[in-house]
């Protein structure tokens, strides 16, 4: 038997690993983590895109930090951009121009940073949409949902503080709006504005303060919460879509090492490459066209990045004649409602929904298998109505561009969006809920009668029928194995002696909320219904139905699959 002598590098690596393992016990943790199973589905990559975009933000941000000057000190520009030659500007704007035209690779890194920020927010939003519509936020993941929600808020803060740093006209207009929103807060608004800007707007301190927030405070919090988010993913197991062999007690997929590690590593370079390609071919935030910030002009067609457009749209839709003076203090509802009340309602709904649904359903079980959106009609309809409101506000934030591009009246567009903001979500809720219920009824028909084949058969006594193809056991299981909660049933208002029951009002409120969620529902097919549907006398000779024992097994549990890549019990 021949033996292979380890190379010097292999011996050094093994010696280092042994040294660390004996002093930290890291070998046990690495071994357990490397055997962790992750399901294989494209939608799970949305969270990875957010993570990799953040890594790109850190890499490009370090480069930009080396050359950016976070100062509002005045200077006169002298550089290759002739249009700005001799123009008075802040050192922050001058350093941004220097980064764009004089530092080798500076413009590419600026655009990589900006595109990565947009992709970071887009992937967070779509990742949360996937989690919401599939019910991945249910027990035990409510806390992790809140962690993701805080990451969304921190992403907004990072984006706002980042695109405000160049001190150009566009970012200055955003800061002017921020100053107006802060001053609209009753009683303390003017003091908060003075504290934030270090004096009267724009002051001289806001850029250095935003720089500290952008490169130190917010990234540090995001890094900590990403670590906590991933820790919860490991502790709770990964969710998985319903399918053969998948239950709340196992995970079907690939181990972290070596399969998933190789896939994830390759995907990082795909994300990095796409961002770099976008940055190299598509211009974004050309501050040299805007010029340095001057409080007097306001450029037409000025919009913030897409994830802040909903706030801009809310401000544009709010009528202006809504100011009141109470006790010597001005109450500016035209700013408070769109800038604080509307975002407060939207964000509170996002954060609180998992707890509201858990209270209504009284479901205390752990859930690791995801829902099909059609099987949760209220949740799906609510999510679509929420997104509809968001899209309306985003479009309203571009009402001036819509008016100029389509040669329409901006007043008519604004009124149309005002109506849509109330009518659109309600209509989207109704349509989505009806679609979900219709899809559930279609699933019932498929389970009970099978797929239509178009094959017409005539019997000896003259009857014509169409032969249906029965579902296979896996498709059948997928369509019947879901919970359909019933509305809450409560005890009568009075007991047998006619005495009004204590706590009846509270129970009645819970029942009404429960009816909102579950009054419109479609029951999954039961084993008895399935057996009855497959018993047709002489018709059975055309397409034999599965026996009753098999039906009961299929409806009550998940079938195993020999084609699953790998299944690990937890």
Break the fold down into its secondary structure elements and pairings.
Layout: H1 8-24, H2 26-34, E1 37-38, H3 45-65, E2 74-76, E3 88-90, H4 91-101, H5 106-133, H6 142-163, H7 169-183, H8 189-197, H9 206-236, E4 250-252, E5 254-255, H10 256-281, H11 287-290, H12 309-317, E6 323-326, E7 329-332, H13 333-361, H14 377-396, H15 399-406, H16 410-449, E8 451-458, E9 464-469, H17 473-480, H18 504-518, H19 527-533, H20 548-556, E10 567-569
Antiparallel strand pairs: 1-5, 2-3, 4-10, 6-7, 8-9
Helix pairs in contact: 3-5, 3-10, 4-5, 5-6, 5-10, 6-9, 6-13, 7-8, 12-13, 12-14, 14-16, 17-20, 19-20
Written overview of the protein:
Residues 16-242 form the Cytochrome b/b6 N-terminal region profile domain. The chain has helices at 8-24, 26-34, 45-65, 91-101, 106-133, 142-163, 169-183, 189-197, 206-236, 256-281, 287-290, 309-317, 333-361, 377-396, 399-406, 410-449, 473-480, 504-518, 527-533, 548-556; strands spanning 37-38, 74-76, 88-90, 250-252, 254-255, 323-326, 329-332, 451-458, 464-469, 567-569. The chain is mainly alpha-helical and 570 residues long. Strand 6 (323-326) and strand 7 (329-332) form a beta hairpin. Helix 7 packs antiparallel against helix 8.
């Amino acid at each position: 038997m021949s033996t292979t002598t380890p190379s010097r590098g292999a011996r050094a690596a093994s010696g280092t690993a042994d040294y660390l393992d004996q002093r930290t016990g890291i070998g046990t943790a690495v071994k357990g983590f490397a055997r962790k199973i992750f399901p294989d589905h494209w939608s799970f990559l949305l969270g990875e895109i957010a993570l990799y975009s953040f890594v790109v933000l850190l890499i490009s941000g370090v480069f930009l930090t080396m050359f950016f000057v976070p100062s509002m000190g005045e200077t006169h520009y002298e550089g290759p951009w002739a249009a700005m030659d001799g123009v008075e500007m802040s050192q922050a704007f001058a350093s941004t121009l220097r980064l764009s035209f004089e530092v080798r690779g500076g413009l590419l890194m600026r655009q990589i940073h900006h595109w990565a920020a947009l992709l970071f927010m887009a992937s967070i939003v779509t990742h949360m949409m996937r989690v919401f519509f599939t019910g991945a936020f249910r027990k035990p993941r409510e806390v992790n949902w809140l962690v993701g929600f805080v990451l969304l808020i921190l992403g907004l803060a990072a984006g706002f503080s980042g695109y405000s740093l160049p001190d150009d006209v566009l970012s200055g207009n955003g800061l002017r709006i921020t100053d107006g929103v802060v001053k609209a807060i009753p009683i303390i608004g003017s003091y908060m504005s003075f504290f934030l800007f270090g004096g009267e707007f724009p002051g001289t301190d806001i850029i250095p303060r935003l720089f500290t927030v952008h490169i130190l405070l917010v990234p540090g919090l995001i890094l900590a919460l990403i670590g906590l988010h991933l820790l919860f993913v490991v502790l709770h197991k990964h969710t998985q879509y319903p399918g053969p062999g998948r239950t709340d007690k196992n995970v079907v997929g690939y181990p972290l090492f070596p399969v998933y590690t190789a896939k994830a590593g390759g995907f990082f370079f795909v994300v990095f490459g796409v961002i770099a390609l976008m940055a190299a071919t598509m211009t974004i935030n050309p501050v040299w066209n805007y010029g340095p910030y001057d409080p007097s002009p306001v450029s037409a067609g000025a919009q913030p990045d897409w994830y802040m457009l909903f706030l801009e749209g809310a401000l544009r839709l709010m009528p202006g004649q809504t100011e009141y003076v109470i006790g010597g203090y001005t109450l500016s509802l035209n700013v408070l409602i769109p800038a604080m009340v509307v975002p407060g309602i939207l964000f509170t709904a996002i954060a609180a929904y998992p707890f509201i649904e858990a209270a209504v359903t009284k479901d205390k079980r752990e859930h690791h298998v995801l829902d099909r959106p059609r099987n949760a009609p209220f949740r799906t309809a609510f999510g679509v109505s929420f997104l509809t409101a968001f899209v309306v506000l985003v479009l309203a934030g571009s009402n001036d561009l819509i008016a100029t591009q389509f040669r329409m009246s901006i007043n008519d567009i604004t009124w149309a969006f005002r109506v849509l903001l109330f009518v659109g979500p309600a209509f989207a809720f109704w349509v989505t809920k009806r679609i979900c219920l219709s899809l559930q009824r279609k699933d019932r028909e498929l389970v009970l009668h099978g797929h239509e084949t178009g094959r017409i058969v005539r019997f000896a006594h003259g009857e014509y029928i169409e032969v249906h193809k029965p579902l296979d056991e896996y498709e059948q299981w997928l369509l019947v194995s879901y919970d359909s909660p019933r509305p809450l049933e409560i005890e009568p208002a009075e007991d047998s002696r006619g005495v009004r029951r204590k706590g009846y009002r509270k129970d009645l409120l819970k029942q009404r909320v429960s009816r909102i969620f579950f009054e419109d529902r479609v029951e999954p097919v039961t084993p008895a219904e399935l057996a009855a549907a497959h018993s047709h006398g002489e018709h059975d000779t055309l397409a034999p139905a599965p026996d009753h024992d098999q039906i009961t097994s299929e409806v009550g549990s998940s079938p195993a699959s020999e084609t699953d890549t790998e299944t690990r019990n937890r």
